[in-house]
Give the backbone structure.
Amino acid sequence: MSRRGPSLGAPVALAARLCPLAVLVALIVGSPALAEAASPNPTLSVQIGQTGIQADPGIALEALLALTMLSLVPAILLMTTSFIRIVVVLSFARSALGLPQTPPNQVLLGLALFLTGYIMWPVWQQANADGIQAYLHGEISAESAVERSAQPLRDFMFRQTRQSELALFIRLAHLPSPEGPSDVPTHVLIPAFMLSELKTAFQMGFMILVPFLVIDLVVASLVMSLGMMMLPPTTLSLPFKVLLFVLADGWTLVIQSLVQSFH
């Protein structure tokens, strides 16, 4: 018994009956549009006039400078805050454990960013209150707002900068000896602050490396005394270093030392 497909006779007959009706409705509905299109006098009119906008080269230059500053803001904020010391010390801690990929870079950078925000929050609040909010309320000019906003950040950098590094960059810039902090330009203070932060971070990193170095020496001596020349000492010392770090609550001690070093 063969299967037959659905019959197409009824739909075809229905379409044949509806086509003349559809054409008639289309003619009735479209007749007003056709009449308007055939009108010899269209009512469309176009007026072209001059606007009151004038090109100002100063506006374009200010926009270019603003975009340039926005692209440099992340680097400026990171290089003038506690981020340098934090990320370097955390990298030393990871290297001391002998785990080059644990914790991952994203975790270390995220932790460094949040710690930077925690440490710098009072400084940013003061800069916002003294400069930005006063400018938004129309109390001071833009130049004064920049100076007032930068002053808390300059004070923070002065507290963390060593005199030797500051004197070095003043001498390299061929500037006279400043009588006070206000006489030190910001472009001289920032590299001096960065160099001081790197020096402090390496000192803290050395203190973290010493205990783990002792463990490596002890394990290497045991391996050599047992005659296992082909066994890398780091393979045996790694579990002991991780165990020591966990038992001493190492991450808490490192973070606590970092935060307290800025006070």
Notes: The chain has a mean pLDDT of 76.
